[in-house]
Amino acid sequence: MGGVRELAASFVVPGPCGVAVRDRLKHLTAQDEGVLRAVGAHQGALASRDLKDRCADGLEHSADTWAVRKRELTGVSSSRIAGAITKATHDQWALARRCQAAHIQNLATGIKTLRHRLSLPLGQKGTKRVAGGYRSQNEWFRKSRRLAALEDRHTAAVCDRQAGRVRVVRGGKRLLNTRHHLTQARLTEEQWRERWEAERWFLAADGESGKRFGNETIRVTPDGEVSIKLPVPLAHLANTRHGRYTLTATVAFAHRGAEWADRIEANRAVAYRIHLDTERGRWYLTASWQRPVVKTIPLETARARGMVGVDTNADHFAAYLLDRHGNPVGDPHRFPYDLSGTVGHRDAQVRHALTRLINWARRVGVAAIGIEDLDFTAEKTREKHGRRKRFRQLISGMPTGKLKARLVSMAAEQGLAIVAVDPAYTSLWGAQHWQKPLSTPHRKMSRHDAAGIAIGRRALGHPVRRRTAPPPHDRSDRAGHRTAQAAPGDRGREGTRPPTTDRPPGEPSPSGKRKREPSASKTVRDAPSTHQWVQDSLMHAG
């Protein structure tokens, strides 16, 4: 392959397997908020204690230890609440283990890069794929110190993983560190404390099929009435029978409300979570449920009506429409977004750009969208990019994971499939083979637009280049035919021109004028050959 790595095969991304909708709990009384705070604080303390016990078990965890923890929680809450807490604990511990493995891999990658660069002579130039030596003795010395630090961190992380130790913070490590930087965060100690306690509450319940309205702990009726099963120590706060507290607020899910109502009326499982937005002072109820796994359409079916190739960038999506033969159709389309500002603003920008992209894909009539299977896990290391701090910040700020999840779920609702392709060389080959040929005085092609064409062609199963290069030896056939060409029977517009009439050769035309006979060949290139290969039109070859 001449140094080009092997490309992964394209595939249709599976559809979403779950749904979540949210509505605000309006007009809560002071008593309602007091009960919610008391229940959240009580169950949050139980969740913290259970997480501590799970971390202490480490790799010795088993079904027996799980049963012991659940029995202890059941005595101070209920069986269902204890099950929800232990399940959330296991999920959080497993997430910490996955993050620990990713951290170890990142450290190993940095150590490998540093060792390689330290082994090279000072000032040795690198290549596009491999970095060279360091520029000065001072830089070499500082990088050797950093190598020793990374090796110590890697050793400690590996020991923790082998022993089953993880680092977990209920409420989030970022919010915990904010406590030491309240001035920069523009928060008072009271505001931080309120946010910290709210994040550590536990007001959630898993659904249970067969139970009334699909959830026995947090029950929501078709009319929107919300009631909570109180834990045993707080049973005196109940305002209805069987130790339940009914809120004065009601909910009405505007999005997927009919689907939610069908589930609860059939007593199918629906999970609920109640949380407080401390910045706005608002309470919200989130309902979620699982969907049956939908079988994705075959790859050939997704390619049947063409493809929209999308190149993901730091500030926009560059999309191009291609027919099923891989030919670009029309002009490029760009869907900008702004990833600065708050998390909510960034999320809204991505959703708005994806909505416009999906609506345009539906209008042009394609069945699928081709997108790169981006993963910058191994591309953000400080040792790999060195002083390119702005570039590292650029790729770190791209929400690739959230973008893929949102695109899959939003496209599935509109009946569109997502085809993921290998992102290797899409920008390089797209600019090489498509940017200049498609640029006109009235159409400016950027490198990102050309990359969208490369992504779309790869999703369709075509090579990125427009046609295979002819063989050597002055572009003749002495070295063999092209590897990609039209079939011998398909002459196309390069075939011989049919005669105008059925007159024998040399007979004058009806107008009395003799048609000129073809001249004899005077060059080797014009000499007749025993075989003839035909190349179809430029845009048709794939």
- The amount of beta strand, in percent, is 5-15%
C-alpha end-to-end distance = 20 Å
Largest sheet, spatial ordering of strands: 1-13-12-9-10-11
Q: Provide the gyration radius in Å.
A: 32 Å
Order of helices and strands: EEHHHHHHHEEEEHEEHEEEHEHHHEHH
Record field, number of beta strands: 13
The major sheet is characterized as:
6 strands, mixed
Instruction: Catalogue the unreliable spans.
Output: 520-542
Secondary structure: elements and pairs:
Layout: E1 11-12, E2 18-25, H1 30-57, H2 63-76, H3 79-118, H4 137-163, H5 173-178, H6 182-185, H7 189-200, E3 204-205, E4 218-220, E5 225-229, E6 244-250, H8 257-265, E7 271-277, E8 282-290, H9 299-303, E9 307-312, E10 316-322, E11 328-336, H10 343-364, E12 368-372, H11 382-385, H12 389-396, H13 400-413, E13 417-421, H14 426-438, H15 447-460
Parallel strand pairs: 9-12, 12-13
Antiparallel strand pairs: 1-13, 2-8, 3-7, 4-5, 5-6, 7-8, 9-10, 10-11
Describe this structure in words.
It is a single chain. With 542 residues, the chain is an alpha+beta fold. 41% of the residues lie in helices and 14% in strands. It is built from 15 helices and 13 strands. The chain has a 6-stranded mixed beta sheet with strand order 1-13-12-9-10-11. The protein has a 4-stranded antiparallel beta sheet with strand order 2-8-7-3. Helix 1 packs across helix 3 and helix 14 (426-438) crosses helix 15 (447-460). It is globular, with a radius of gyration of 32 Å.
